[in-house]
Design a protein that fits this description.
By secondary structure, the protein is an alpha/beta fold. The chain has one domain. The protein has 4 helices and 5 strands; from the N terminus they run βαβαβαββα. A 5-stranded mixed β-sheet has the order 3-2-1-4-5, covered by helices on one side. Strand 2, helix 2 and strand 3 form a beta-alpha-beta unit. Helix 1 packs parallel to helix 4. The radius of gyration is 13 Å and the shape is globular.
Amino acid sequence: MPLLSEKAKPHLILIIGQSTCPACQIDHYALQRFYIPWKSKGYQIVYVSIDDNEEDYKLFYSNDTWETYHNKKGWKSQLAKSLHLIATPTLFCFNSNMELLKEAENAHQMHIWIESQLQ
């Protein structure tokens, strides 16, 4: 996985999810709808899967148009620990200095927040 700070130009939406999580599956379809509008407004998406099974990861995320990575250490990973991850999906928005601007439980919450920032 590349340095996330390189992706935060001007904003990074970091999403942590799992292919076997029902809420993540629903959110994944919402992301497909929001991806192009977010990207056109300068919000880059990086999706990190914490799936236990690599085959589940490959099957579910193989057609994504945004960057997707598999963190094989899952809940025990340094990323999950440093973000104090307690549930999936969780979305984080960072600015170009990697300062956390927003944490959301789903794509709809993040979308409402992004739209409010553009007014």
